Amino acid sequence: MHPQRRAIPAGILFGRTFLRHPRMLGSVVPSSRFLISRVLRPVDWPRTRVVVEAGPGVGTLTTAILDRLGGDGALVAFEMNHTFVSHLRRQIPDRRLVVLHRTAADAETALAERGMGAVDLLVSGIPLSGLTREARLELLEGWRRLLRPGGELLVYQFTRSALPDLRRIFGRVRREFEPLNVLPAWVFRCHAP
What we know:
Elements: H1 10-20, H2 22-25, H3 33-40, E1 50-54, H4 60-68, E2 74-78, H5 82-91, E3 97-100, H6 107-113, E4 119-124, H7 133-146, E5 147-157, H8 163-170, E6 173-178, E7 185-191
Parallel strand pairs: 1-2, 1-4, 2-3, 4-5
Antiparallel strand pairs: 5-7, 6-7
């Protein structure tokens, strides 16, 4: 028999990954419960069926989404870090969750491959400031195409640098600030026309 490996606690896994890839994560610790609440509080959960999460990391926000999502809902998470993918698949055994080891830029293709329609909610903590402007605009345009009419994109960031591009793609953007997080964060709410 092989001894079973113990799971690395999420906070340690997150911090260790930050030290290796700081631009990928943007923060040394996972999102606080205050930031999670600010991001998810205004979502119309009874009407939300299909959710995409871009860059779930260790699943701090993922579990909060699943706690609110109805039993017939689906959450598709796009994660580039293979260690996080393994962690999520092992630690969150929920039939509504699909964790893909793919970039969030592949979301349109990946959802089409699964026969999934338009997305009600797309949540992202990917540090958009780490992308070139061209890549950022292309990503945001793809995300807008994914959303059903009236669907919502929620982006949380540690700077406001992505705000002009969010406005360019979505028009009006509501913003809120959450100081009780390491680092303090901006939450941007964008609705698909």
